[in-house]
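I had to read the description of the data format several times before I understood it. In essence, backbone conformation is discretised, so a fold becomes a row of integers matching the chain in length. I therefore recommend that a typical entry be quoted early in the introduction. For illustration, here is how one protein appears when written out as sequence plus structure tokens.

***
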Amino acid sequence: MAHGLENLEERIEYLFKDRSLLVRALTHSSYANECRVEQGDNEQLEFLGDTIIGFVVGEYLLVNHPDFSEGQLSKHRAQLVSSSSLFRMASGLELGRFLRLGKGAEKSGGRKKQAVLVDATEALVAAVYLDGGMEAARRFLLKQLEEDLGDIRSGRFVSWDYKSRLQERLHSLREAPPEYSIIDESGPSHRRQFCVRLTIGGEPTAQGQGRTKKSAEQDAARQALERVERQLSWKT
């Protein structure tokens, strides 16, 4: 377990002074109930982490984009703190590898479930805050959101509507989350063209095209969502 924690600390670029906070952030309630661990589960940390994430993102947008209207600030904040955004963050950190899950949660694929990973991400932010203060939490969170924040600054920010809607639709149907992979990249550096394949449960479902990886993923998600909705309408 110690080696695993060191590996995660390297990934998040933060070394805990109190390792028990990190362990608690990674402890699902199913594990705490089964093993009766002393430090408890991560549910209270989730609550605190959710508040910190909203504050840090809102503060960043307000300070760095004074020209944004209240509506623009609210829209960007909602997207940056959404479950889809936090799920992508958790996936990038491979957070599921480090979770402590009960036997039932393990068997049901808890390490890949969006709800479990989003909760753990919020708990991790809270753990960093409690261990190192607001500046440490701010630095960690903004680092994880660096690409999206850069897109906002450059005006290339792509709405995640189709991706989040597909993610939520599949979650409601108890289907596996979508996975995206680049299968082709062409054109000169200033006019790149990306082709992304979207799979659901290992099954190729759609291919998207775009000038950026994100826009290609968005296109693939749009096609996949339309396909899922068509299949549902055929069954009714």
Observations:
- The first strand starts at residue 178 and ends at 186.
- The domain at 161-235 is CATH 3.30.160.20 (Double Stranded RNA Binding Domain).
- The mean pLDDT is 88.
- The CA atoms of residues 7 and 98 lie 9 Å apart.
